[in-house]
Amino acid sequence: MITTHIDWDHVLDRYRDGAEIDSLPGGAKISVSGADVERIYVTHRLWQDSLQRRNLERGIQLVAEGQISDEANRFIDKYRTLVADERPTVAATVLKDLGYLQ
């Protein structure tokens, strides 16, 4: 069954204290530095940013509806267009790490 929401308790358990995550093929290494009820905080050697919960949840909803692919590399462009231009590659990387994308 395809999920239409993100288990945010799992997100907090996984990322609250930070985590190293595998990047997508060809992607730069990123680290999750923390999470709270509204955001996941990410760092790269050149920048720091965050991903909004509402955007990630909207992306997963669109995957469930078949409007966005659940394949991480194909997810990126549609996420940028249909949801937000908020670090779409990082969003796909995090959602893959959480098990929502392939």
Describe this structure in words.
By secondary structure, the chain is an alpha+beta fold. It has one domain (8-97). Helices cover 40% and strands 19% of the residues. A four-stranded antiparallel β-sheet has the order 1-2-3-4.
The backbone outline, from C-alpha atoms, is globular
Helix content: 40-55%
Radius of gyration: 12 Å
Weakly predicted, low-confidence segments: none
Distance, first to last CA: 14 Å
Strand content: 15-25%
- Provide a count of the helices: 4
Order of helices and strands: HEEEEHHH
Number of strands: 4
Notable features of this structure?
102 residues; alpha+beta; four-stranded antiparallel beta sheet; 4 strands; 40% helix; 19% strand
Provide a quick synopsis of the model.
The chain has 102 residues and is α+β, with helices and mostly antiparallel strands. It has helices at residues 8-15, 53-64, 72-82, 88-97; strands at 19-21, 30-35, 39-43, 48-52. The protein has one domain.
